[in-house]
Amino acid sequence: MTDSEGGDRSGLVVELTDALDATDGAWEGWNAVDDPTRELYATWVAQARRAGLRRDRALTTAHHAAQGILRHAVQRFDAAESAGEVVGAVAEGLAGKLVRILANLIN
Questions:
Q1: How far apart are CA 42 and CA 77, in angstroms?
Q2: How many CB atoms lie within 10 A of CB 89?
Q3: Which of 18, 20, 19 minimizes the C-alpha distance to 30?
Q4: Which of 31, 43, 45, 73 could disulfide-link 7, Cβ–Cβ 3.0 to 4.6 Å?
Q5: What is the mean pLDDT of the chain?
Q6: Are 63 and 96 found together in one domain?
Q7: What would the mean pLDDT of 41-59 be, rounded to a whole number?
Q8: For 59, how many CA atoms within 13 A lie in the half-sphere containing its CB?
């Protein structure tokens, strides 16, 4: 099933399709982003257990879509950046430990 702009509605919860329908330009913004971004938002909306929360998330998604900022409104996981942070933290911890060991050996 598709919307009036040719977008695919299958797999979307009713709250999300209703919000996209009700917000001017939302379907255009929704259709303009890549599949992973759409899947991320669709899952975020659908995972809410309460209908009110699903509706709020759907309205937020539709607003971001209409503004053309769906991709920019998500902080994606960056494995390389996270690994760098872990390595840095481990290195700092090891450096501190090494300094304490050396200080104990000298004394």
A1: 17
A2: 10
A3: 20
A4: 31
A5: 84
A6: no
A7: 95
A8: 6
